[in-house]
Amino acid sequence: MRRAGLVLLAAGALFGAWTATAARGESAPRSALAARGAELYAESCQSCHGIDGAGIAAPGAVHGVGDVAGFGPSLRGVGAQAADFYLRTGYMPLRDPSAQPRRSHVEFSPGQIRALTAYVASLAPGPGIPAPHPVQGSLSAGMSLFVENCAGCHQAVATGGYVPDAVAPPLGQSSARDIAEAVRIGPNLMPRFSRSRLSDAQLDSLIAYVLYARAPDDRGGISLGHVGPVPEGFVAWLMAGVVLVGVCVAVARRPA
Amino acid sequence: MRRAELTVAALLLLAAASAAGFVVVYALDSIGHQTQLLGLTLGAAFACVAAALVVAGRHLVPVEDGEDEYGSPAPEAVDQVAEVVEEGAVRMRRRRLLAGAGAAAGAAIGAALLAPVVSLGPAFDLAALARTPWRRGRRLVDEAGAPIPAAAVRPDEFVTAFPEGADPEEIGSPVILVRLDPARLRLPAARRTWAPEGIVGYSKICTHAGCAIALYRAPLFEPAEQPPGLVCPCHYSTFDPATGGTVVFGPAGRALPQLPIRIDRQGNLRAGGTFSGPVGPSWWGVRRGRATS
Amino acid sequence: MIRPVVRALDERTHAAPFGVRALRYLFPDHWSFLLGEVALYTFIVLVATGTYLALFFHPSTAQVVYHGSYAPLDGTRMTEAYRSTVQLSLDVRAGLLMRQTHHWAADVFVAAIAIHLMRIVFTGAFRKPRELTYYVGLTILVLALLEGYLGYSLVDDLLSGMGLAIGYAVALSIPFVGANIGQLIWGGPFPGTADFWSRMYIAHVFLLPLLIATLIAIHLVLVAALHHTQFGGGRRTERRLVGLPAYPAQAARSLGLMFAVFAVLFLLGGLVQINPIWLWGPYHVADGTNGAQPDWYLGWLIGALRLMPSFDVTILDYTVIPNPFWGGVLFPGLVFGTLYAWPSIERRFSGDRARHNLLDRPRDVRWRTATAAGFLSWVFLIFLAGSADRAYVLFGWSYETQLQIYRVLVFVLPPVVFWLTLKVCDELRRNEEVSRRRREAEAEARAAANRA
Question: I need a labelling partner for C114 at 20 to 30 A (CA). Which of A1, A10, B274, C100 fits?
Fold first, then answer.
């Protein structure tokens, strides 16, 4: 009887310790990967995202790389999905916290990215890295979805667009995983689309369309960037116009 | 001269070959880049003829200036014309009466012939401009016609909604729904009940020039980014959903009409009435604050 | 071989005397006098390719579901107008060539008229006795803008549908009668009834081409009746015209130019993609895309619409002048009003009421040249402002800052261009004067040396 009680007590204590540490998160037993990630985080991310990913609401005393006063959102609960997206695209690290994160040079090696992702995922439960299957999607469903939900910012064939006061980037370099992650996260000024709004099957179709839009059906000839009438006007004036004026000059020339 | 003749002949034969090429390309059932090849062959045929004509014009035909006189006004002929016309009216005494009556007939017949133009559209009945399909209690549905539960509108997301049973292609139909933190809402006093759980609905048609407001600016981290906004892609008019659709950027001159939203017993969204103001671009005399019918 | 044919024709038409005059008719010779012809030949291509398109296009707003050869549109709801255009583009042999050539020709038609108009203004060809010719030509330009707008709007794709909404808003913004006019044309509130599509179609394939062709004919008759203007110099005077006869010299050149225009247009139509409507998708009232623009000849209006600060002119609760009025009605009204009034304005300021058959060199009429240059720079600047959003996407220049800069430049740049143009004209004339004096001095020195 007494031994059973001791076992229960010990179990209870262990359980209590486990839930306590799980709630705090930071000192939960971490994988080696996440531990390595924690080190990288402290070097490169903490000045904006705060200790243990708590976030810094306003620029304050903490200064980071380049002596920039850091501030940034909390990373608790964003999960591996967000970390993977921001790091693999080079959106992060961001030199100036007020600037718009853009696709740029990727600072970290794939191993480092995995470590950082594991660390961010360990902070609090959050979405994992999505695994889209665009080949299972329908191109026509994807086009409809894209026009209804995305073209307003990213333009009808994803050449990018302007949103006051930021750029909705062109998607020609985005992989299926990038698109899936961005749709679910809604980075920067982009709205987000959860599973109830856009199911995984619909997302597959959407991605299929975006991938198609990289090299769409251009049987009409040189595509001029798929942006519409502005480059066409340039061609009309600077190619046709110049050539035809040149023809007029040539036609009117007298023999010597 | 001789070389020019040969050049012209060669160019014309080349044009013939190119034109034949066009027909061949056209006749082939499957050929890659058919449009490009058709354009190339036909364009080349025309270009060769053009070059042949230019060479001929320069070297094969006499190129000599001639001289001529510019015409000048002919006062005698003008007088004669005037005389002939006046002679025609020599037997008319009451010229003014005839002219006036003729003008009256002409004007009246002209106006009469123009009258049926009014059948083209309700030019004198502008009430339709203020009508929309929205009524109190009408359910909001998505593109597929399915009702929209309140839970489907999540923070940082936007949903396009239409009135159940109505034509989605009317400009009064599309509505854009977003969910904001209720503590942030600064709606006009009369609209305090229009946003249950912070869900606000606005006409999706911009009040500037009628394009669809297809952008929702949803900041991830507000301290470093712009606040939420509904943006039109045509001229970038931006409306603040937290303050009743007021214009915060761009050329729109009137706030975005808001639709009162309520949540029914099944948890689906319904309209609580009609829009707060006219939908779409403004017109002369539009009552800005008057609700749609 | 020619004589029997001509005799046979003359017996049946009595046209030989006219034929003699026509064949011997003289054309003053300068490359810039051929620009109008470029527009004329482009019009021929427009009519020919347009007729071909009309044999396939269905001007119907009936809703259909696409099940054609283009996979991304499979199952999509669209109008029959859009569907028939997609089918013409993707499934009719040579259909895409004809459609693209037609659209390129429309862009080039307006550009050619614009270049021709610039030549007319800068050389003073609009002066008496050619004011009527000028007004007719200007009207052709206005109609060409409308014709092009209707043409690409008939297709009912996403881009042109958005453009129609803006056209509707501009119509509505006309004070007093805007809403009435809008309801009349559209048959009701936007997007209008099926009747509206019939109206666009008939206007585009029949009414406007007929009107434009008639005006072109009147324009050419007037040019021929008054004879073409010429630059001075040599034996050319206000009375004496020096030029090439219609046949054979001018005919060879003009025909050569005509085929060159055909060549350029069909080459563009085959090689450079224009308006790939299958990529935009059909228009729906609830849809929009970023970066939508009208064709270039309406792009100047987009710049104006975007530059205007946010305000509707209101009295209490009533809207009196909606915002699109300034950029969509007043601005083009000002531009075309100025163009129509240009001959009268110049007559008033210069006091010159004489008839002119000789053209001015732009440098010799510095006031006109500078005013025209300033005016052109004003319009072009507003046109550029319409591309500020793409400039932001491509180069990262802040959109708001660009707008602010443009808003200042539209007041500052035209006077600067005006002043600069005056200076350039003066400089060119000064250089000529110097060269002339030097040549005279050298000739004198040589003569003196010969005498010695």
Answer: C100
B172 to B58, B130, C197, C223: CA distances (angstroms): 65, 9, 20, 52
Q: Which residue of C has its CA nearest to B73?
A: C129
Q: Which of the following CATH numbers is that of domain A134-213: 1.10.760.10, 3.40.630.30, 1.10.10.10, 3.30.9.10?
A: 1.10.760.10
Which residues in chain C are closer than 8 Å to A163, comparing Cβ atoms?
290
Residue B286 pLDDT more than 70? yes
Are the beta carbons of C70 and A212 closer than 8 angstroms? Answer: no
Domain ranges of chain B: 2-60, 129-271
Q: How many CB atoms lie within 10 A of CB C210?
A: 10
- How does strand C240-245 pair with strand C230-231? unpaired
Cβ neighbours of C222 (radius 10 Å): 16
Q: Is the dihedral of CA C322, C326, C328, C334 positive or negative?
A: positive
Q: How far is B88 from chain A (nearest CA, A)?
A: 50
The answer, for B33 touching chain C at a CB cutoff of 8 Å, is no
Report the residue from C34, C279, C400 with minimal CB separation from A251: C34
Q: Which fold has domain A30-123?
A: Cytochrome Bc1 Complex; Chain D, domain 2 (1.10.760)
pLDDT recorded at residue B223: 87
Residues 148-177 of A with CB under 8 A from C: 148, 151-157, 159-165, 167-168, 170
Tell me which residue of C399, C349, C231, C169 sits closest to A161, measured CA to CA.
C399
Dihedral (CA of B263, B264, B269, B274) sign: negative
Q: Residue A154's closest chain B neighbor by CA?
A: B215
**CB contact (8 A) between residue A163 and residue B231:** yes
Contact C179 B215 (CB under 8 A): no
Structure tokens at C292: 């939508």
Interface test with C, best of B26, B38, B173 (most C CBs within 10 A): B38
pTM: 0.93
Query: What's the CATH number for B129-271?
Result: 2.102.10.10
Task: Give the chain B residue whose CA is nearest to the CA of A146.
Answer: B214
Amino acid, single-letter form, for residue C47: V
Q: Which residues contact A177 (CB under 8 A, 6 or more apart)?
A: A84, A88, A129, A130, A131, A132
Cβ atoms of C404 and C388 closer than 8 Å: no
- Per-residue pLDDT tens digits for B150-172: 999 999 999 999 999 999 999 99
Instruction: Say if the Cβ atoms of B66 and C317 lie within 8 Å.
Output: no
> Domain spans of chain A?
30-123, 134-213
CB A159 within 8 Å of CB C279: no
B49 interfacial to chain C (CB closer than 8 Å): yes
Which class is domain C28-281?
A: mainly alpha
CA angle A102, A106, A112 (to 5 degrees): 130
Give how far Cα B39 sits from Cα of B22, B60, C42, Å.
8, 30, 16
DSSP structure string for A86-124: HHHTT--S-SSTTSPP-S----S-HHHHHHHHHHHHHHS
The answer to whether C38 contacts A155, with C-beta atoms less than 8 Å apart, is no
Instruction: Provide the 3-class DSSP secondary structure of residue C70.
Output: coil
Q: How far apart are CA C132 and CA C135, in angstroms?
A: 5
Which run of H or E residues covers position B68? strand B66-69
CB atoms within 10 A of CB B88: 9
Domain boundaries, chain C: 28-281
* ipTM rounded to 2 decimals: 0.93
Provide mean pLDDT across the span A222-229.
91
pLDDT at C178: 93
Tens of pLDDT, residue by residue over A14-63, are: 655 555 544 444 455 578 899 999 999 998 898 889 888 899 888 877 67
Which of A143, A223, A242, A254 to mutate: most C Cβ within 10 Å? Answer: A143
